Every structure is written in C-alpha cells, then in structure tokens.
Amino acid sequence: MKKIYDYQKDDQVNLYVLIKSADEKITRTNKPYLSFTFQDTSGEISANYWDVTPEDIEKFKPGTVIRLEGKREEYKGNPQIRINAIRPAKEDEPNNPELYVERAPINKDKMVEEFNHALFDITNANMNRIVRFIMKKYQHDFFQSPAAKTNHHAFMGGLAYHTVSMLRIARSLSEIYTDLDVSLLFSGVILHDVGKVVELSGPTATDYTLEGKLIGHIVMINEDIVRACRELKIDEDHEDVLLLKHTVLAHHGELEYGSPVRPLIPEAEMIHYIDQIDAKMNMISSALRKTEPGEFSERVWAMNNRSFYKKTYINPASDSK
Amino acid sequence: MKKIYDYQKDDQVNLYVLIKSADEKITRTNKPYLSFTFQDTSGEISANYWDVTPEDIEKFKPGTVIRLEGKREEYKGNPQIRINAIRPAKEDEPNNPELYVERAPINKDKMVEEFNHALFDITNANMNRIVRFIMKKYQHDFFQSPAAKTNHHAFMGGLAYHTVSMLRIARSLSEIYTDLDVSLLFSGVILHDVGKVVELSGPTATDYTLEGKLIGHIVMINEDIVRACRELKIDEDHEDVLLLKHTVLAHHGELEYGSPVRPLIPEAEMIHYIDQIDAKMNMISSALRKTEPGEFSERVWAMNNRSFYKKTYINPASDSK
Amino acid sequence: MKKIYDYQKDDQVNLYVLIKSADEKITRTNKPYLSFTFQDTSGEISANYWDVTPEDIEKFKPGTVIRLEGKREEYKGNPQIRINAIRPAKEDEPNNPELYVERAPINKDKMVEEFNHALFDITNANMNRIVRFIMKKYQHDFFQSPAAKTNHHAFMGGLAYHTVSMLRIARSLSEIYTDLDVSLLFSGVILHDVGKVVELSGPTATDYTLEGKLIGHIVMINEDIVRACRELKIDEDHEDVLLLKHTVLAHHGELEYGSPVRPLIPEAEMIHYIDQIDAKMNMISSALRKTEPGEFSERVWAMNNRSFYKKTYINPASDSK
Amino acid sequence: MKKIYDYQKDDQVNLYVLIKSADEKITRTNKPYLSFTFQDTSGEISANYWDVTPEDIEKFKPGTVIRLEGKREEYKGNPQIRINAIRPAKEDEPNNPELYVERAPINKDKMVEEFNHALFDITNANMNRIVRFIMKKYQHDFFQSPAAKTNHHAFMGGLAYHTVSMLRIARSLSEIYTDLDVSLLFSGVILHDVGKVVELSGPTATDYTLEGKLIGHIVMINEDIVRACRELKIDEDHEDVLLLKHTVLAHHGELEYGSPVRPLIPEAEMIHYIDQIDAKMNMISSALRKTEPGEFSERVWAMNNRSFYKKTYINPASDSK
Amino acid sequence: MKKIYDYQKDDQVNLYVLIKSADEKITRTNKPYLSFTFQDTSGEISANYWDVTPEDIEKFKPGTVIRLEGKREEYKGNPQIRINAIRPAKEDEPNNPELYVERAPINKDKMVEEFNHALFDITNANMNRIVRFIMKKYQHDFFQSPAAKTNHHAFMGGLAYHTVSMLRIARSLSEIYTDLDVSLLFSGVILHDVGKVVELSGPTATDYTLEGKLIGHIVMINEDIVRACRELKIDEDHEDVLLLKHTVLAHHGELEYGSPVRPLIPEAEMIHYIDQIDAKMNMISSALRKTEPGEFSERVWAMNNRSFYKKTYINPASDSK
Amino acid sequence: MKKIYDYQKDDQVNLYVLIKSADEKITRTNKPYLSFTFQDTSGEISANYWDVTPEDIEKFKPGTVIRLEGKREEYKGNPQIRINAIRPAKEDEPNNPELYVERAPINKDKMVEEFNHALFDITNANMNRIVRFIMKKYQHDFFQSPAAKTNHHAFMGGLAYHTVSMLRIARSLSEIYTDLDVSLLFSGVILHDVGKVVELSGPTATDYTLEGKLIGHIVMINEDIVRACRELKIDEDHEDVLLLKHTVLAHHGELEYGSPVRPLIPEAEMIHYIDQIDAKMNMISSALRKTEPGEFSERVWAMNNRSFYKKTYINPASDSK
After folding, report:
1. Minimal Cα distance from A208: which residue of C?
2. Which residue in E has a C-alpha nearest to residue F284's C-alpha?
3. Is residue B20 pLDDT above 70, yes or no?
4. pLDDT at B204
5. What is the DSSP letter of D99?
C-alpha cells in the first residue's frame, strides 16, 4: 500500500490516512474550513478542507481513517495536500487507526525477550532486585511510551525500542571493554530513561507532565531507586546502590544537559555514549527516510540544525542484504 | 588578645595559635624540618621549623595549641612566620583548640531560636511536617557543618549561619513581594543545603564524601523528602510536595551549576537569588577582612577571580553604629 | 468593570478599550481593512475590522477609547477579537485614555515620599548632593518613564516603581549586612537606571533614542555624575565620586551584559543582585497574571525562555491577606 | 617482577627501571645533581640524585636500565623516589629498555590480522584501493606510533591499538545499525588518525612535528587521499571519494575540535562516537590503574578534569573471568 | 534611470526590472496568481500578480525584463510592489538581463591588472608557480563567482572584487609592517577563497555544491596546492609549501569558524584580519545603502544581528570628493 | 654593544645592564641574598646574588646600571644568569638607565609630526577642537605611557607608538574605503586609548590605578569628551559628539571585552579592527624576536596561548631591504 511520502510533488494522491488533528478555522471572508493534519507510517502532512458543513466537521474528527483523493503540493516550502475528495474509510477497508501510527520496528514480545535476557545477566543481587522491582511497576506503560516528545524515538513503543537497542550495544561493548561491570552497565541502561514513562503524558499527543517539568525524569528514576530499596530492605548506603544511582543520574553526561553529576565511573560514561549513539542514529535515519538519494534532509534541530546527506550509490555489500 | 592578622609585615609576633597541620619534610641537604600551618580566628599562616628532633615532631602535632614567638614575613607574596621559639600552651593558658577555629558570629541558641520562629511561620501542614522530619534527623550535624569545603561559610556552624541569614532575607523580601508563598519560601530555604551535612565530611578537614561526589547534595535532599513522605504518609503526588522538591532541586538556578531543573516558580527563583546574595556577601567580606583600607584583596576564585577594593573613607552614618 | 483578559476563549465580549494602534491594510482581494491593537490594563489584543470606509479610518485612530462588542477567539495560538460592532466612547462613558494604560501600582506621591526618605538617609555629603542634583534634572520624566522597552516594568511610571522597590530591598538588606555603606547603596540604587529617562523615548510607543543606542544608559548616567561634580565643585578624584561612578557602571554585573567594569566593591555587587531580583520578580508575576492556576505561562524571553508554573493550592497563610 | 606503582608510600624500593630523562642541575649552594625521571610499564616517577660526579652523569644517561634502591616518598603531593643507591643493570639482568615502555596489550601480528580482516570487508573497490594504498605507505610507522602525545593511547603501538579497538566497535555496531555502509565505516575508521604518523614525531619523546602543527593530522590524511586518487587514477569527483574524505575530515565532530566540517552522513557521525568511546575508555582505565579501590583517581585533564572512582566490590560475574 | 530603491513608500513606480523568480500559487479561494521577486542593481522587491492566465505564466518567466507600473507599499514591514500593469520589455528598450544584476564596482580588466601586479610581487619562486597554476585553472570562473551565498560580496564578480580589495589592504599594511613576507602575504590573499569557485554553484541562484558542503572551500584549496605541487614537481615538504598551505587553512582565524588550524605565523594572522575587514565593510555598506540618513539599517545577521546607523551630517572633507 | 638575548645558553656573559628590581631574600639556611631582574633593550632576565652584605644591598638598588660578568643558564626552562661578578657602571661607562629600557622604535619628534599631520586632516571643527583639547591636557604623559601593563606595546612611549601605527593604517584604509569619514576615523584613533595615561601608573613598574580599575580607560576618555565639550561650549547633543563618543566607547568591539556598546557605525568597526591588527602584530613580533628561526615562540597568553612559528627561509624580496 502506497504511503504519503511515496508520492512526489504534483502527483495525484489516492490513499488511506489517519486524521491526526482537525482544527476548525474561518477564512478572512468568514467561511468555515478544516485545517487537517493527516498521518500514516511514512509521516505527517497538512491539508485545508474548504467550505465545510457542520456534518463534515462531525464526520472528520481526529482518529478517523479516511480515503483521500487529492494532489501533493508545496506551500512555502512545506509539503501539503490539495483535497479533491475525502470520505471515512468503510468497514471492509483498512480503518484501524493503529495501522497508521509509527511504532517500534520490532514487536513487544521480542523486546520483552531481550529484556529478560539482559535481566538474567545482571548477576549482582542488589541491582537485579532493584531493576526488577522498578520494571514491574512500569511494565505496562514502558512498552507503550515514546522516548521523547519530538526528538528521537518519538513514537509508540519508542522508549522500549531505544532501551533494547542500547542493551544490544552495551552487550557488544562489554565484550570489547572487559573491565566493565556488566550488572551495572545493563541495570543503568534499563533504568536510565524509565522516568520518561511518568515525565511524558503517553504515546499520543505526547507532552510533559507537571512532575516531568518540575522534577525531571532523571531525578524521578532516582526516587524510584530510593523507594525500591525501602521496599526491598536494601541498604541504601551500599556501594551497589550508590553506583546504580550515579549511573542513572549522570547519563546525560554534562551538567548543562540536566545531569546533576557528571559520570565518575566508566560504566556511567559508557551509558552516556551508548544513549547518544542510539538517539543520534535514530534522528539521522528518520531525517534520511524522507530524503531523496543525492539530496540533503531537512534540518534536524536537536543535532545542531544539521542537514544530512543521503548518498546515491549502492554499496555492493549491502545489495544482497 | 592579639591575633595573627593583627600583626603587620616585619612585626615581632608573640601569641597563642593552634597547629592546624604539621608536615615532616627534609631539606635538600637531608635535614628534617616541620612545615606548619598555624591558625586562629583571624586566619591561617604557614611557617617552617628547622632542624627538628623526633621529640619536637611528637610534641607539635596538629591540634596542639602553642605559644609562638617569631617574626611576620613574606615569602613569594604570601605571609609567613619566621619562628624564633615555640612551646605547647600550658594548663593555665588558653589551650582549648576550639578557641582558635573560625565559627559562626551568632551562637547556636540564637540560631535555633530563629529556626523555630521560621518553622512556626510554615503554616502549610505538609511542608511543615516534612521540614520538621528532616531537620530532626540532621539536627546535631546541621549546627556543626560548614556550608562548603572552601568557598563561602567554610567554617564550623557555617551551614546553619548561612541558612539563618537566608531566612532573614527571605522574611524581609516576603514583605515586599507579598504574592510569594511564605511556607514554600521558608521550607525551601531551610532544606536547600541540608544535604551538605552528608555531602561534606564535617567541620574539620572538610572534604566531599563518596555519596557527596556520586549523588550530590541537591539530589540527596530530594531523596530525604521522598523518605519523609513515606514515613509521614504524605501523598507524594500532592502539589505541595512537588513544589517543595522543585524548589530544592532548582536552587542552583541553572543546569550548568548542578540543578537538574531550572526555577519554574517564583519561590524557587527567589531562593536562588537569596542563596547567591548570602554566599557572595560572605566571600567578599572574608576577602576584605584581610585587606588594608585603600587596597585590593587577594583574588576570589569563586567570584570569577575578582579582587575587591576596601574603601578608605569612613561614612559618618556608620560611625555611630 | 470587566477587562479583556477577564474573558475566556469563545466568550462574547462587551467592554471599553483603548485603540493602541490601527494600521490600514488591504485584503488579497483588494478590500481595505483596519488591523487594530486594543489595550486595557489587563493587556493587549489584536483584531481586524473588515470592509472599512474612509470615515471609519478617521473615526478609529490610535488613542481613541471605544465601545467594543465581539467574540474572544484564537488565531494561530494567539488571542484575538472578532469584532461585531465598535463605536467611540461617549462623553458620559469612561473615555479617558489614561484609564486603559498599565501603570505603577503605587501612586506618584507615595513614591516621591519614599525617595525623600531614602535621600534623607544618604548622609555622605558628596553623594547626597550629586544624587539630588541629577534627580532634580530628571524629576518630571523619571516618574513617567518605563524601566524598559519590553522586558520588565515596561509601563508608565515603571522606572520609578522599579527604583522604589529596589530601595525597599536595599533598606532591609542593609540591616542584615551591616557593613554595607548605606549612603553608597542608596545613591547607587537611585541613580542606576536614571539614564533610561534619556535612553528610552518615553512612556508610550517606547523605543531607544539615538543616544540610547550609541552611548547607552550606563555610560549616560556616568556622564551626569561628571557634570554634577563640575556644577557642584566636587572633586572628581574623591573616593566618594569614584565609588559612586563604579557602582552605577558595574550594576549589570558582567561585561557581557553591558557593564564596562565588574563589581569590585560589596555595594556594587549588592545593587546588581537587587536589580536582578526586582526585574525577575516583575517579569514572572506579569507572566503569571495571564496564566490559569495549574497551567504554565507563555515563555518569557528575557528569562532564558522559561515558562512559569502557577500553583493551584491556596496557602492558608495568604488566605487572610 | 614488582613495578614502581606496586609500591606504597614509604615502602623500601628495590627494582629495575629505565631512565627516561636525566637533567643536570645545580643546587642553590652550587652543587651539581641529576634530576631523573624513571619509568617502567606501571608509569613514571621522578627522583633527584645528589652530589653527582661527571662519571655519574656519563653513566646514567636516558635510555639506560638501572638497578634502583630507595624509598617511595611524596613531595608536594606527587610520588617521588629517594635514591639510596643506583647502578646500571648488568648483562644477565633485564637490561633491554623495551621491557620498560608501555605498549599495546595485543601484539602486532594479531593487530595486522584484524586489519586484514577489515580490509577484506571493504567491498567498495574505490575505497578498498585508497585505504590499501595509504596503509602501505605508512605500514611500518603505523604500528609503532602512539595515538597522542599525552592524552589517550600515548604509547608505542597506541595508534594501531586504538584503531583496532575502533574496528571491533564498528563491526558490532554495523550489525545493530544495518543501514550503515560497512565499506565507508571501516575505511573511515582505518584512515581517521593515520595522519598522526606524520603529525607526531614517533613513539619516544613524542612531540608535534612542524607539519603536524601547521597543517594538522586531519587535513594531512585528506591530502593523502588526494594523492592516492591521482596515483590510482580514481576520479576524485566520485561520491565514494567525497564521502571517504568527508568521513575523515569530520571525525572530530565539531568545528571547535578541529574538524573543518561537521558530520553530515551517518557513517561520519558514528566514527566520531566510536573514536570518543575508545579514547575515553582508555583514559579512564589508565587513570584507574593507578588508583586504589574505594579511592578517586588523579584528575584527567582531557576529560574536563574529572577524577574517577574505582569501585570496591567484586562483581561475582567478573570473578570467574 | 530611476531604480526600485530610489522610490519611497506610496510612490507611483514606473520602471524596468528583471524577474528574478516567479512562483505559481493559488489564493484560498482557489484562484491562481504569480508571486514575483523583481530585481535591479539597487536591490530586490516582491510583488503578487493576481488572477493570472496561463499566457501570463508563460510570458513572465524568471530572467525576463519587464516594464512595471505600480505602487511602492509595505507589507508586514517589508517593502513590496502593488502591480498596476506589467509587460515584457521591447526590443528597443533596456531588455538585457545583465543590466539588472549587481556586480563588482570595478571591471574585470582593471581587476586582472591588479592581480598581475600582485603576481609580479610574489618573488618566491615556489609560491609564484603554485599561485599561477591554480589561478590558471579557475581563471574564468574566478571573475564570475560571488564571494558568498548571502553574506558579503554576494554578487557576480564578488569573489574577485573581494580579493582585489584585500590585495590593496595587504599592500599598504606590508609597507607598515615591513617584517611581513610579501610573497606569502599576497599568495595567501589570492588563494584564500579560490575554493569558493567550486564550493558555490555560480553567480546566479547561488547555492553550496555537494563538495562545498562535505569538504568545504578551505580544505578544497589546500587540495589544489597538493595537486599543483605534484604537477609542478615542487617538494611538498619545503617550508614554502607548508607556510602557504597553513596561511590558507588558517584564514578563518579560529577553529569554530571552520579553520582546522589557528594562525601560527604573522602572515596568516594578518590575512585573517584583512579578510574580516573587507567582508565587514562590505556588509555594513550594503546595509547602509538601503538606509535613510539618521536611521538605523535592517539587522545584519552575519554581524551578530547588529543594526547600523547612517549619519546625517556631511563632512566638509568628503564634500569635494 | 651585545645585549642579554644575543647570548646563548651556557655562554659567558659580559655586559652592562640595568637593575630593574632587587628583592632581599634569605636562603633556607638563613643567609641573605638578592634576587635581581636585569634588563636591557633586548629583554629581561633574572639572577640570584648569594651571600650579600648590607653594603651590596645599598649599592645594587633598582635603577642602577651595572657591569655584569656571569654565565647564561636555564632554570626550570627559563633563562637566568649565574653571576660571577657585578659592579656599578662608572662615570665613563654607559650608565644612563634610559639606554636600557625598551622604547618605541621611532622618536618622539617624528611621532609628534605624524600626529600633527593627522590633526590637520580632521576637518570637522567640533572633532578637531575636542581632540586638540584632550591631547593638550595629556601631551606630556601620552608620549611616555606604555599601551598596556603586560600585553602589547608595554614599553615607554608604547601608547604613542601604537597610536601612530594605527593612524598609518587608518590613512591607508581610508583611501580604499572612501566612504569612511576621515575626521571621525582619525579622531577616534587618536582618542581611543588616551585614557590609558590615567588608567596605568606610568612607564615604569606599570600597574593599574584605582580609577583605572573602578572606571576603566574606555569610560574615562568618554568623560574627557564630556569635559571638553563643556569647556569649549560644544553642544553635547550634536551628532558629531555622539559619534565620536560612540567610536571611543565601542572600540573593544564586543561587550565581553569591556565596550559598553558594540560598533554601530563603520568608523567604529574599522577602528576596532585597526586596534586589533596593531596589537596583535606587536605581540607576535615581540614573541618572535626571542625565537630562533625554525622554532616556535613561547606561548602568548593574550593571543589564546598560541605559540608562533619563526620561518627559516629568507625571502629574496626582503633581502635587499
């Protein structure tokens, strides 16, 4: 099934999309219209629907899957759709909204399996118990939550997917740098962003919660470690606990990025870099996915506003993949 | 009783001082000597004691009060003492080491009274209970602890004295900015640096503890609020608790100074400035205390290395004070 | 009388407002319309008035108070008014434009009284004479001028009100830090922003003057001290004069904020902080005034683009106020 | 065989070391002495040798292995040796200087093998030819050169070892991020620091060469790609060549770290992070190697002057390794 | 002949202009129109042409000179034209597009002459040969190319004009600082920006090329020196070559501005400043050309967003010029 | 006559020098000695004179020219002299201290002539009168004063010499950028650093004065313009005066370098760059004067700690100079 961003400028468009938002507006000549944002797994696009009736407004609410006919245009450099005709998708058509939302490229069962594998390798008893306690508390939301509001992994399941990718990197780096404490490394990776489950308001229309803004996910997960220790009767002054807390608190790497302490043990430094790599690779590949070979992507604000180049040649090595 | 810094360069010196440190060294010609730091409430000064015997080393240990005769000199721009004669202070002489250590200029009873007055004005029940719970836990050490290792209020009782001064400012500013929530303002002031009781190793030979370095006093006090809520059965999601936590977490003002969040409510912004004012006034007056009128002080590292000027004129207004 | 910002989105609006600006424009279909900014003491709002006649343009000039009927809407996230009907206010209606302009919350007489009180406490003769000389020159404009073009205290009388607030803080801090020279502290506070009388073009449609841009208010007040000394035959090399100049020149605290020297005496450092506190408290409370309890304000550009939280609970202590 | 840093403060020392430097100096009383730096694979330490004869000076030249008897002391916080007796190592003693120099922990043959394996995986013909051409030119020095003058991998073979570690990371990350072009990634890793062979003066007494200072290793390797293309008749305008150059030029990540362009393709961004990880892990483990469990290391200048903590507990998981 | 910016706001306009761009758009009521940018040597201005026919779209393509009647207006603070009538310029009218494009104020022949004069003064044989070799390669494009996409000298011939101005400054400064090596100074000036010929896509619709973005003009000219040496059999290790390369590489002055090395010889430092002076004077005079006396210019982004003042008085000295 | 820095390390030294400073010290074994700084026009060097008598101390006071025999050595990387014998210079020997002090390379008469030439070209009457008034006030000290305490032109007459060099550059640039107002450019150059006459304590043992520290030379010269206008009855609101003040106030270019305003007219921007060029060229050539060809200089703190390279080759062009 063709997607929005499979069409070029000036192409006739004919496809199913999800209405992400639908704002009622009026023209300067006082006529009502709907300002839509449509969405499928290839991205989002806006469109205006002129001269709407009250019935239209009722019919085309956010969350509705529609059949869209129109033309792919550009307005002030941004892609938009000129609508010829729209109607709600029918019963026998692909009308499940979840089909149109970006999600992690591996399914939840596979991710749970990888988490369990990592938990198994956390042989330090204190750390293992703390991690299990906290993950149990958040297990449902953790696999739904995005990893950020807008920057990287900003989709349903993004947080778990980001964490799984980091576990994979952590595993391979622990084989290269054999001095690293695997229990601490894996525990830190699993917990580092769990606070985002509470910091962010959930997978759709994601925003920061009050607690997210006033306390922040870094300190929130530290609080959860405190609570876990009290429940599990683990001595908070034990070095295991101090190091685990430190690893989570320091994972942004520098004070100016919101960590109250900078990494002072190798595992903390490593988790910071693993987090960076996975976030940045995700942002670059998101940007390049919407870019033609031989062109530069739109600017990526969270990467110093850089614009990335998509190469034109096909490497023989990746041909056969 | 005359103090070290009451003497000028080249004066003959004749006074009681405390040995703060005494390092055994040898000259290039292999002769043993003691490198002393002497101390009284006016400050510290170094001195070398040549050709020492093993008995001398035994006799002149750190913590001993001695009678010192010598000459106030300068070596590479720093004041030092040339020792003519030293002997331990006798029974009937002022040989209590505590007499020679800098301490808060108001006594503990007076400070406790001011704290109780402030606690009385915290009418918000949640905040009042949390503050009392935490202060009870640290009450002994709180009145002993310095407020910093080297920068400001780095003396026994300095933490309590710094906090009392801040309460005074907070009280007067709350009368000018009447929208401020007094309960939150006072609670935040009292708790903001309590974590230093654990972050620093105590009033003498102060250093950072392991927990101080890996977690930091800002997050440590946040943990104590979490623990207090659990003990006191206070709902941690209550706005009272969130705001109190936020006020403490944000009091360094900017991420790069170690606060994981920046102030987002007026009370948090105000506490940040009150903290700044008291710390800076303390550092400037410490520097000026050792400076002659009409001269510039030594450079103050924690204030961008500025050197402050001590004015020469006497204002009639302050004459009569 | 209800004000603009007492209405919610989609409310019918029925009130008197002042026309702050009225720009003639044409629609894409070549029809003339007026783009208004309306104002009352609760803030400003924009509105378009379609299909205007030349008589309308004549009738609805800036400075006119009008009766407005319409609807409170939002356009691209900003509040605006959809006009149903407007007419100029009549004789027996509240048609004095001054009623609609934000102004200092204490009246001029009260402010003059506080200034005189402060002048009385400047016992240093040189400083007292210089301050009186300069204030006499600017006395009219000083009580009219805003303290800034857009950031803090940007309203008629804002400069005097800002200075009075700072004097109150200075007075209470001088009682806590008794080493401070009250004459210098008060003189510095009074003079620190007087240059803004000339730097800014006045209380309405405030902009920077040529001199304001090329010289700046910090250096301009220093020039006035030079001129005062010459008129009053005060020796410019006297330490009193140097310190007063320094206090004014250094009040922005850091070179990058426009002070040609950093504070090198305690009074200069203190005035910098007092200025900061009053400016920031004013900006936060302006932002929170337009914010609903439990919500975050619009971003405040001059405070690192922070958005402030308005708490929901009522503190019992402030109930009775 | 016990090494220098196996001894504690105040231990009697009895071991073989290499003289790294030996400066003739005179005491204030005009007596000649030698100021030594001794070295073995555990680190470096200084010592003064008093009252030397001209024969001593001749006998104890840099590069000589000696038998050292003395005492491990501290002078101004730095470890030093008080010499009791020294003599050159004899024929039947371990007198080969190479035994005392730090070197890569894997031998050259193993490293060559890993390089060949990586070269085999560079299936892009242009890149493969360019990389082979350049590596052939530097093959001898590449396996001798340190990777830096002082910071990370500052030992014989350090450059090759650093590159091999990066290849291992690159290989495992290319399995996680399967979009990455393996040819480009491996080519970029191999070439990124080859310029250091010329930028640095060699494995002992390493310093920057004139070309190193005026041109820099980043631009120097770019020049080598230009030269390789001309020799191999490869079209310099081919995207393969542009991307390879870009990857090398951008590997410092930011302009302020000396890259004339920032990474604009995913492989360049990734190489930057791989380089960071390996450099930082090397610096941390160097610092921790000289640190006691439960203590903080000396400050590491190239890592923002941080001091790292060496944990005390033994993780069961690493016991069995 | 009167130019666009000779007209004031609200003037009737009657002149020939070049169509720089013409974008087809539609109004909200679905009517097609053309959004023009017109251009002459005084600057650029935009205009909308309503209700266009397909013939209009064909007739008014970019690159066409037209006769324009209309009115000079302002829209949101920017000047624009309200079109009354337009038609293509006729045969006997000034219809050559080149007449409307900004260009260097001195002609090519004069610039070539100054270059030859400078080349003559490069007496160092190596440098002279390298400079001639490279300039020969680019001679055509060099005199067409702008010096930047938007900032300074962004017009046809701008690169050559910028370089000629710099040569004039270099010549006069070399007479004041007689230690400077004239050969190196002139060679560095001539080559410093030659890479822009390839970095930028040419004199019209200027953009960065792929090579310009991935490699950058600084490194590109360094590559050309490498190639020149190989063709001319000049030893690349000769100090002449190293210094010339260094001068070009370092001319941006600081790493963060894209130079991979900072200036380490006086000629490199000097070229950096000469470049700055000419770029900044060009930007200021461009901004002031569009500014009325006694007013401030629009903000100049590349000069920290400053807005420059155009003085009102006429200096007698410049009267007679 | 051979100078200090004409000697190499380990050379026997035999020459006349000036005693710049002579500090009495004692050895650890309580013997008095003198710690000298000697000086001639090639630079400064330190030396210790052991076992001095009170007569020696009397005889070898600062300001005395002596005959020195000794050896040029190095101590911790810094050159020093080992004294064999010293005696005061005799009547018939070169005993005038002024012969040993670095000074401007052109004499005062020549500089005065250049100033007069520049004054003649300031045709704007207001500026001409202001400049003459201020220069008359400082004429004596201006030609004695250094331009800085340590950085650039830190020698007797350095201020005037720096200003003359800037006038030369200003003259030649005004011929290239003919829009510049010559009166303003020359006036700004002459006045820009005159405040240093008062900011610095004079040509020997230069330090900052109290006024220099509290007010700064930039604001001090602005005050002098105010005073000049009052004496000369020039209207301070005249644009001539505003622009001249602005030019002086803005000459440091950026707020963080101490200018209270940034340059907003082309003449101010140009003066900033001219000042930079002359200061930096002076610092580089001072550093290179003490450097061997083919070597790098000591680090220059005020130029970001760079170390400059002295080239080895002789350019044929400069041979004949």
Report:
1. C296
2. E266
3. yes
4. 58
5. G
D306: left (phi over 0), alpha (psi -120 to 50) or beta: beta
Across the range D60-82, mean pLDDT stands at 84
Q: Does domain B108-283 have CATH number 2.60.120?
A: no
Quick one: pLDDT band at residue E173, thresholds 50, 70, 90?
very high
* Torsions phi, psi for E254 (to 5 deg): -135, 150
User: In chain C, which ranges are E strands?
Assistant: 12-26, 32-40, 43-49, 65-75, 78-88, 296-300, 306-309
Which among F123, F168, F269 has CB closest to E317? F123
Distance CA C131, CA C182 (A): 14
Buried b (16+ CB within 10 A) or exposed e, F89-107: beeeeebebeebbbbbeee
Asked if the Cβ–Cβ distance from F309 to D28 is below 8 Å, we say no
Decide: B and A in contact? Rule: 3+ Cβ pairs under 8 Å.
Answer: yes
D238-241: list long-range contacts, CB under 8 Å, 24+ apart: D238/D126, D239/A311, D239/A312, D239/A313, D240/A313, D240/D124, D240/D126, D240/D127, D241/D126, D241/D130
Supply D28's token pair: 């204030």
**Which of D309, D304, B210, B213 lies closest to A265 in space, CA to CA?**
D309
**With a cut of 0.90, is the ipTM above it?**
no
Write b or e for each residue in A283-314: b if 16 or more Cβ atoms lie within 10 A of its Cβ, otherwise e.
Answer: bbebbbeeeeeeebbeebeebeebebbbbeee
Nearest to A101, CA basis, from A202, A29, A174, A13: A202
Residues on chain E touching D242 (C-beta within 8 angstroms): 210-211, 214-215
The pair of structure tokens assigned to F49 is 């004179």
Partners of chain B (3+ Cβ pairs below 8 A): A, C, D, F
Which residues on chain B are in Cβ contact (under 8 Å) with A184? none
Per-residue model confidence (pLDDT) at position F28: 60
The DSSP bridge partners found for residue B80 are B46, B73
Chain D touches chain E, with at least 3 Cβ pairs below 8 Å, answer: yes
- F54, F108 in Cβ contact below 8 A? no
Chain B positions touching A259 (Cβ under 8 A) are: 260
CATH class of the domain defined by D4-100: mainly beta
Per-residue model confidence as pLDDT tens for chain F (321 residues): 788 888 888 889 999 999 988 888 877 666 788 999 898 888 788 899 988 888 888 899 888 999 999 998 876 556 789 999 999 999 899 888 878 877 778 888 999 999 999 999 999 999 999 999 999 999 888 988 888 877 778 788 889 999 999 999 999 999 999 999 999 999 999 999 988 887 877 665 567 888 989 999 999 999 999 999 999 999 999 999 999 999 999 999 999 999 999 999 999 999 999 999 999 999 999 888 878 888 898 889 889 999 999 998 655 444 333
Q: Tell me the C-alpha distance between E124 and E180, whole Å.
A: 13
Tokens, residue D9: 């403060």
Q: Name the nearest CA neighbour of E155 among E206, E108, E121, E118.
A: E206
Q: Give the residue, C139 or C233, on which the prediction is more confident.
A: C233
Cα distance between residue F82 and residue E196, in whole Å: 57
Domain boundaries, chain B: 4-100, 108-283, 290-319
pLDDT for E259 beyond 80: yes
Q: Which residue in this structure is represented by tokens 């107002």?
A: F181
Say how far apart CA E213 and CA E200 lie, in whole Å: 9
Amino acid sitting at position A24: E
Which of D28, D50, D309 is the closest to B214 by Cβ?
D309
Chains E and C are in contact, defined as 3 or more C-beta pairs closer than 8 angstroms: yes
Across C174-203, average pLDDT: 90
Average pLDDT, chain D: 88
At C206 the pLDDT is: 66
Give the residue among F79, F80, F97 at the shortest CA–CA distance from F88: F97
Q: How many CB pairs under 8 A join A and D?
A: 118
Put simply, whether the predicted model's pTM sits higher than 0.90 gets the answer no
> Per the CB < 8 Å rule, is D261 touching E226?
no
